[in-house]
Amino acid sequence: MKIGVLLKQVPDTETRIKLKPDGSGIDESDIKWVVNPYDEFAVEEALQLKEKRGGEVVIVSAGPPRVVEAMRTALAMGADRGIRIDTTGMALCAYTTALMLAKAAEKEGFDLLLGGKQAVDDDNAQVLQGVAELLGRPIVSIVEKITVGDDGKTLTVQRPVAGGIKEVINLSLPALLGCEKGLNTPRYPSLPGIMKAKAKPMVELKGSELLSGEVRKVEPVKHMLPPERQAGKKITGEPAEVVEQLVKWLREEAKVV
């Protein structure tokens, strides 16, 4: 089974984001970059499938040269090789990112494409769906359990639905799956794995060539930080007094009743 993993490098979730003075984007000068947490579950699932059924795991990522570090982490976990789409200096949106990834994936002819259900930086959960649409393949997201059929050509996946209900879906390969927390427990790269990762093949594709003149469909206007959270109000007294004060505040100040 040939499995591709769409991986994104994102700011560490503990990083304090700062904006550029003109609001045109984030200041990347002091950011620690990591593998998107949801993509780690995709990498681990791909490795487990390879261990059970054989095959190859290929990491596909779009970004500037720094994304190689995240890709090497996945290679150290056990992936076989990497494909980096160079996007240096490019203005992208979810559509153009999906288009580049889809063209790279199409050349490889993956049986299965895995990715995180969303990236924790922009949080828009659009790229994986875009890749599926462009490739004309079925997609299921958010997936918390994956079973490959005995024929190696079908999948049974489970996804959570509101209210604790589980939805079980059967689909045929090739397909795409968006991975959720709880699907597995990602392994840590071993020291031998880290050493081997340095020698594993990684090819580079030019994003501009893959886009063939296509431009982004969404143009960001300005980036703004959310307003500082205001201090809450505490009401004390007897229950009847508290209720009266609360209703008065909701009506006169909050103006919600």
Total count of helical runs of at least 4 residues: 7
What fraction, in percent, of the residue positions are helical?
A: 25-40%
For the termini, the CA-CA separation is 59 Å
Q: Would you report the number of β strands?
A: 12
Shape: globular
Strand/helix succession: EEEHEHEHEHEEEEEHEHH
Q: Largest beta sheet, briefly? A: 7 strands, parallel
Per DSSP, what share of the residues sits in E-state strands of 2 or more residues? Answer: 25-35%
Any low-confidence stretches, pLDDT <50, length ≥5?
A: none
Mean pLDDT value: 93
- Identify the strand order in the major beta sheet: 7-11-6-1-4-5-12
Features of this protein?
single chain, 257 residues, alpha/beta, 7-stranded parallel sheet, 3-stranded antiparallel sheet, 7 helices, 30% helix
Descriptive account of the structure:
With 257 residues, the protein is α/β, with parallel strands linked by helices. The strands form three sheets. It has a seven-stranded parallel β-sheet with strand order 7-11-6-1-4-5-12, with helices on both faces. A three-stranded antiparallel β-sheet has the order 8-9-10, with no helix packed on it. It has a two-stranded antiparallel sheet with strand order 2-3. Strand 4, helix 2 and strand 5 form a beta-alpha-beta unit. Helix 3 crosses helix 4.
Nutshell version of this structure?
This protein has 257 residues and is an alpha/beta fold. The chain has helices spanning 37-53, 67-77, 94-108, 127-135, 191-197, 207-211, 239-252; strands spanning 2-6, 9-11, 33-35, 56-63, 81-86, 112-116, 139-143, 145-148, 154-161, 165-172, 175-179, 202-206. The protein is globular and about 70 Å long.
